[in-house]
Amino acid sequence: MTASPSSPGTASPPTVIADGVHIVYRVPGASAGRGSATAALSRILRRGERSRGVREVHAVRGVSFTAYQGEAIGLIGTNGSGKSTLLRAVAGLLPTERGRILTRGRPSLMGVNAALMDDLTGERNVVLGALAMGLTREQIKERYADIVDFSGINEKGDFISLPMRTYSSGMRARLRFSIGAARDHDVLLIDEALATGDRAFQRRSEARIHELRRKAGTVFLVSHSNKSIRDTCDRVLWLEHGELRLDGPTDEVLAEYEKFTGGKRR
Ligand SMILES: Nc1ncnc2c1ncn2[C@@H]1O[C@H](COP(=O)(O)OP(=O)(O)OP(=O)(O)O)[C@@H](O)[C@H]1O
Q: ipTM above 0.95?
Protein backbone atom coordinates (compact mmCIF):
# COMPACT_ATOMS: atom_id res chain seq x y z
CA MET A 1 0.00 0.00 0.00
CA THR A 2 1.32 3.43 -0.77
CA ALA A 3 1.38 6.30 1.67
CA SER A 4 -0.77 9.25 0.75
CA PRO A 5 0.64 12.34 2.42
CA SER A 6 -2.01 14.59 3.80
CA SER A 7 -1.49 18.31 4.12
CA PRO A 8 -3.41 20.72 6.29
CA GLY A 9 -5.87 23.04 4.64
CA THR A 10 -4.01 26.16 5.66
CA ALA A 11 -0.65 27.21 4.34
CA SER A 12 1.15 26.30 7.58
CA PRO A 13 4.91 26.04 7.40
CA PRO A 14 6.46 22.58 7.70
CA THR A 15 8.04 21.68 11.05
CA VAL A 16 9.38 18.19 10.34
CA ILE A 17 10.39 16.73 7.00
CA ALA A 18 11.39 13.07 6.84
CA ASP A 19 12.83 12.09 3.50
CA GLY A 20 13.38 8.39 2.81
CA VAL A 21 14.49 7.67 6.37
CA HIS A 22 16.11 4.34 7.24
CA ILE A 23 17.20 3.50 10.77
CA VAL A 24 19.31 0.49 11.61
CA TYR A 25 20.25 -0.69 15.09
CA ARG A 26 23.46 -2.60 15.50
CA VAL A 27 23.53 -5.07 18.36
CA PRO A 28 27.06 -6.22 19.23
CA GLY A 29 27.61 -9.76 20.43
CA ALA A 30 24.56 -11.07 18.59
CA SER A 31 25.34 -12.70 15.28
CA ALA A 32 22.53 -13.26 12.77
CA GLY A 33 20.00 -15.75 14.11
CA ARG A 34 19.46 -18.92 12.11
CA GLY A 35 16.78 -21.55 12.23
CA SER A 36 14.03 -22.07 14.76
CA ALA A 37 13.91 -20.93 18.37
CA THR A 38 14.65 -24.53 19.46
CA ALA A 39 17.71 -24.63 17.24
CA ALA A 40 18.86 -21.32 18.73
CA LEU A 41 18.32 -22.64 22.26
CA SER A 42 20.35 -25.78 21.64
CA ARG A 43 23.13 -23.65 20.13
CA ILE A 44 23.24 -21.61 23.32
CA LEU A 45 23.19 -24.69 25.58
CA ARG A 46 25.83 -26.43 23.49
CA ARG A 47 28.30 -23.63 23.41
CA GLY A 48 27.44 -21.72 26.51
CA GLU A 49 29.27 -18.76 25.07
CA ARG A 50 28.32 -15.39 23.69
CA SER A 51 28.00 -15.25 19.94
CA ARG A 52 30.30 -12.87 18.18
CA GLY A 53 29.46 -10.44 15.46
CA VAL A 54 26.90 -7.73 15.08
CA ARG A 55 23.22 -8.16 14.37
CA GLU A 56 21.54 -5.46 12.36
CA VAL A 57 17.92 -4.56 13.04
CA HIS A 58 16.42 -2.52 10.23
CA ALA A 59 13.77 -0.76 12.31
CA VAL A 60 12.59 2.02 9.97
CA ARG A 61 12.50 1.49 6.21
CA GLY A 62 12.26 4.38 3.81
CA VAL A 63 9.76 6.56 5.70
CA SER A 64 8.85 9.97 4.23
CA PHE A 65 6.37 12.55 5.50
CA THR A 66 6.04 16.27 6.10
CA ALA A 67 4.49 17.60 9.31
CA TYR A 68 3.06 21.09 9.50
CA GLN A 69 2.65 23.65 12.22
CA GLY A 70 -0.55 23.13 14.19
CA GLU A 71 -0.91 19.41 13.41
CA ALA A 72 -1.28 16.63 15.97
CA ILE A 73 -0.04 13.43 14.38
CA GLY A 74 -0.59 9.98 15.81
CA LEU A 75 1.90 7.18 15.21
CA ILE A 76 0.30 3.76 15.27
CA GLY A 77 1.33 0.21 14.42
CA THR A 78 1.63 -3.19 16.05
CA ASN A 79 4.41 -3.95 18.57
CA GLY A 80 7.88 -3.49 17.16
CA SER A 81 6.70 -1.66 14.04
CA GLY A 82 9.15 1.20 14.54
CA LYS A 83 7.07 3.97 16.16
CA SER A 84 9.38 4.77 19.08
CA THR A 85 12.43 4.46 16.86
CA LEU A 86 11.03 7.00 14.41
CA LEU A 87 10.12 9.33 17.26
CA ARG A 88 13.62 9.10 18.74
CA ALA A 89 15.12 9.81 15.33
CA VAL A 90 12.94 12.93 14.93
CA ALA A 91 14.18 13.99 18.38
CA GLY A 92 17.74 13.68 17.06
CA LEU A 93 18.60 10.85 19.42
CA LEU A 94 19.23 8.25 16.71
CA PRO A 95 21.18 8.71 13.47
CA THR A 96 19.60 7.87 10.14
CA GLU A 97 21.27 5.19 8.09
CA ARG A 98 19.94 6.70 4.88
CA GLY A 99 17.61 9.61 4.17
CA ARG A 100 17.23 12.82 6.14
CA ILE A 101 15.14 14.38 8.86
CA LEU A 102 14.84 18.16 8.89
CA THR A 103 13.19 19.87 11.84
CA ARG A 104 12.35 23.40 12.80
CA GLY A 105 13.66 24.22 16.24
CA ARG A 106 14.69 21.49 18.63
CA PRO A 107 12.05 18.80 19.01
CA SER A 108 11.42 17.72 22.59
CA LEU A 109 10.82 14.09 23.34
CA MET A 110 8.78 14.10 26.48
CA GLY A 111 10.21 11.86 29.12
CA VAL A 112 13.73 11.69 27.77
CA ASN A 113 14.71 15.33 27.61
CA ALA A 114 13.54 15.64 31.16
CA ALA A 115 15.77 12.92 32.59
CA LEU A 116 14.54 12.59 36.14
CA MET A 117 16.65 11.39 39.04
CA ASP A 118 15.45 8.65 41.32
CA ASP A 119 17.20 9.76 44.49
CA LEU A 120 15.93 13.31 44.33
CA THR A 121 12.49 14.35 45.49
CA GLY A 122 9.71 15.11 43.03
CA GLU A 123 10.04 18.82 43.77
CA ARG A 124 13.81 18.85 43.07
CA ASN A 125 13.13 17.00 39.83
CA VAL A 126 10.53 19.55 38.79
CA VAL A 127 13.06 22.34 39.26
CA LEU A 128 15.94 20.51 37.57
CA GLY A 129 13.76 19.24 34.71
CA ALA A 130 12.39 22.74 34.11
CA LEU A 131 15.90 24.24 34.18
CA ALA A 132 17.05 21.58 31.69
CA MET A 133 14.21 22.64 29.38
CA GLY A 134 15.47 26.18 29.43
CA LEU A 135 13.01 27.80 31.86
CA THR A 136 14.43 30.57 34.05
CA ARG A 137 14.22 30.40 37.85
CA GLU A 138 11.61 33.12 37.73
CA GLN A 139 9.46 31.14 35.26
CA ILE A 140 9.86 28.02 37.39
CA LYS A 141 8.65 29.89 40.48
CA GLU A 142 5.58 31.00 38.54
CA ARG A 143 4.79 27.59 37.09
CA TYR A 144 5.85 25.22 39.89
CA ALA A 145 2.42 24.92 41.50
CA ASP A 146 0.75 24.37 38.12
CA ILE A 147 3.21 21.62 37.21
CA VAL A 148 2.57 19.77 40.48
CA ASP A 149 -1.21 20.25 40.22
CA PHE A 150 -1.19 19.06 36.62
CA SER A 151 0.68 15.89 37.56
CA GLY A 152 -1.83 15.05 40.27
CA ILE A 153 1.09 13.70 42.34
CA ASN A 154 -0.13 15.40 45.50
CA GLU A 155 -3.77 14.41 45.16
CA LYS A 156 -3.45 11.64 47.74
CA GLY A 157 -0.96 13.26 50.10
CA ASP A 158 2.35 15.05 50.09
CA PHE A 159 4.24 12.82 47.66
CA ILE A 160 6.09 15.57 45.85
CA SER A 161 8.54 15.88 48.77
CA LEU A 162 9.42 12.16 48.60
CA PRO A 163 12.22 10.72 46.44
CA MET A 164 11.18 9.70 42.93
CA ARG A 165 12.17 6.10 43.62
CA THR A 166 9.10 5.79 45.84
CA TYR A 167 6.78 6.66 42.92
CA SER A 168 4.77 4.20 40.89
CA SER A 169 5.58 4.04 37.18
CA GLY A 170 2.35 5.93 36.47
CA MET A 171 3.34 8.71 38.88
CA ARG A 172 6.75 9.03 37.25
CA ALA A 173 5.26 9.21 33.76
CA ARG A 174 2.75 11.84 34.90
CA LEU A 175 5.41 14.00 36.51
CA ARG A 176 7.57 13.75 33.39
CA PHE A 177 4.67 14.73 31.17
CA SER A 178 3.78 17.64 33.45
CA ILE A 179 7.32 19.03 33.43
CA GLY A 180 7.54 18.68 29.65
CA ALA A 181 4.16 20.31 29.15
CA ALA A 182 5.18 23.37 31.21
CA ARG A 183 6.82 24.92 28.18
CA ASP A 184 5.63 25.55 24.65
CA HIS A 185 7.42 23.52 22.00
CA ASP A 186 7.80 23.86 18.26
CA VAL A 187 7.73 20.09 17.97
CA LEU A 188 6.61 17.96 20.89
CA LEU A 189 7.05 14.19 20.77
CA ILE A 190 5.03 12.10 23.19
CA ASP A 191 5.54 8.36 23.61
CA GLU A 192 2.60 6.62 25.27
CA ALA A 193 2.50 9.08 28.18
CA LEU A 194 -1.26 9.37 28.03
CA ALA A 195 -1.74 5.68 28.63
CA THR A 196 -0.21 5.86 32.09
CA GLY A 197 -2.49 8.29 33.86
CA ASP A 198 -6.04 7.92 35.10
CA ARG A 199 -8.95 9.36 33.14
CA ALA A 200 -8.71 12.80 34.80
CA PHE A 201 -5.01 13.06 33.98
CA GLN A 202 -5.66 11.94 30.41
CA ARG A 203 -8.25 14.67 29.99
CA ARG A 204 -5.83 17.30 31.30
CA SER A 205 -3.11 16.01 28.97
CA GLU A 206 -5.38 16.06 25.95
CA ALA A 207 -6.45 19.62 26.73
CA ARG A 208 -2.79 20.64 27.05
CA ILE A 209 -1.95 19.00 23.71
CA HIS A 210 -4.73 20.98 22.03
CA GLU A 211 -3.40 24.16 23.62
CA LEU A 212 0.16 23.45 22.46
CA ARG A 213 -1.12 23.00 18.92
CA ARG A 214 -3.00 26.27 19.06
CA LYS A 215 0.27 27.94 20.03
CA ALA A 216 1.63 26.88 16.65
CA GLY A 217 3.38 23.70 17.68
CA THR A 218 3.32 20.25 16.12
CA VAL A 219 2.59 17.29 18.36
CA PHE A 220 3.47 13.66 17.63
CA LEU A 221 1.82 11.02 19.79
CA VAL A 222 2.74 7.34 19.89
CA SER A 223 -0.05 5.31 21.39
CA HIS A 224 -1.65 1.88 21.39
CA SER A 225 -4.90 3.48 22.45
CA ASN A 226 -6.96 4.21 19.36
CA LYS A 227 -9.19 6.31 21.59
CA SER A 228 -6.33 8.61 22.66
CA ILE A 229 -5.31 8.92 19.01
CA ARG A 230 -8.89 9.67 17.96
CA ASP A 231 -9.37 12.25 20.74
CA THR A 232 -6.06 13.99 20.13
CA CYS A 233 -4.89 13.67 16.54
CA ASP A 234 -6.20 14.84 13.19
CA ARG A 235 -3.68 12.90 11.16
CA VAL A 236 -2.18 9.45 11.60
CA LEU A 237 0.94 7.70 10.32
CA TRP A 238 0.60 3.92 10.42
CA LEU A 239 3.88 2.03 10.53
CA GLU A 240 4.15 -1.69 10.00
CA HIS A 241 7.44 -3.57 9.93
CA GLY A 242 9.27 -0.24 9.73
CA GLU A 243 7.38 0.89 6.62
CA LEU A 244 4.84 3.66 6.36
CA ARG A 245 1.62 1.88 5.41
CA LEU A 246 -0.74 4.82 5.46
CA ASP A 247 -0.63 8.54 6.13
CA GLY A 248 -3.94 10.37 6.25
CA PRO A 249 -6.88 11.67 8.27
CA THR A 250 -7.31 9.90 11.62
CA ASP A 251 -10.67 8.27 10.88
CA GLU A 252 -9.56 6.81 7.55
CA VAL A 253 -6.27 5.42 8.81
CA LEU A 254 -7.76 4.04 12.03
CA ALA A 255 -10.52 2.31 10.07
CA GLU A 256 -7.92 0.48 7.97
CA TYR A 257 -5.79 -0.27 11.02
CA GLU A 258 -8.74 -1.68 12.92
CA LYS A 259 -9.50 -3.98 9.98
CA PHE A 260 -5.86 -5.08 10.02
CA THR A 261 -5.73 -5.77 13.76
CA GLY A 262 -9.14 -7.44 13.72
CA GLY A 263 -11.52 -5.09 15.39
CA LYS A 264 -11.73 -2.00 17.51
CA ARG A 265 -9.33 -1.56 20.36
CA ARG A 266 -9.68 0.80 23.31
N1 LIG B 1 17.95 -0.39 21.22
C2 LIG B 1 17.61 -1.27 20.27
N3 LIG B 1 18.52 -2.11 19.77
C4 LIG B 1 18.20 -3.02 18.84
N5 LIG B 1 16.95 -3.14 18.29
C6 LIG B 1 16.02 -2.33 18.75
C7 LIG B 1 16.28 -1.36 19.76
N8 LIG B 1 15.13 -0.67 20.01
C9 LIG B 1 14.19 -1.20 19.20
N10 LIG B 1 14.73 -2.20 18.45
C11 LIG B 1 14.03 -2.99 17.41
O12 LIG B 1 13.53 -2.10 16.44
C13 LIG B 1 12.23 -2.50 16.02
C14 LIG B 1 11.26 -1.36 16.25
O15 LIG B 1 11.13 -1.12 17.65
P16 LIG B 1 10.31 0.11 18.23
O17 LIG B 1 10.52 0.12 19.71
O18 LIG B 1 10.61 1.31 17.47
O19 LIG B 1 8.81 -0.34 17.92
P20 LIG B 1 7.44 0.22 18.44
O21 LIG B 1 6.54 0.28 17.26
O22 LIG B 1 7.65 1.48 19.20
O23 LIG B 1 6.99 -0.96 19.40
P24 LIG B 1 6.00 -1.02 20.69
O25 LIG B 1 4.64 -0.69 20.19
O26 LIG B 1 6.12 -2.45 21.09
O27 LIG B 1 6.54 -0.07 21.71
C28 LIG B 1 11.91 -3.77 16.78
O29 LIG B 1 12.24 -4.86 15.96
C30 LIG B 1 12.84 -3.72 17.98
O31 LIG B 1 13.20 -5.03 18.36
A: yes
Q: Does any ligand 1 atom lie closer than 6 A to the CB of residue 152?
A: no
Cβ-contact 76, 251 below 8 angstroms: no
End-to-end, the C-alpha distance of the chain in Å comes to 25
Long-range contacts of 257-266 (CB under 8 A, 24+ apart): 257/76, 257/226, 258/226, 261/78, 264/226, 265/224, 265/225, 265/226, 266/224, 266/225, 266/226, 266/227
**Ligand 1 pocket, 129 CB below 6 A?**
no
Give yes or no for residue 59 CB within 6 A of ligand 1: yes
* Atom nearest to 82 CA in ligand 1: 18
> pTM of this prediction?
0.81
| pLDDT digits 0-9 by tens, 118-167 | 899 999 999 998 888 888 999 999 999 999 999 999 988 899 999 999 99
Residue 87 Cβ contacting ligand 1 at under 6 Å: no
Sign of CA dihedral 148, 153, 157, 160: negative
Amino acid at 183: R
Cα 192 to its chain centre, rounded Å, is: 6
Mean pLDDT in residue range 89-107: 93
3-state percent breakdown (helix, strand, coil) of the chain, nearest 5: 40, 25, 35
Give the integer Cα–Cα distance in Å for 193 and 78. 17
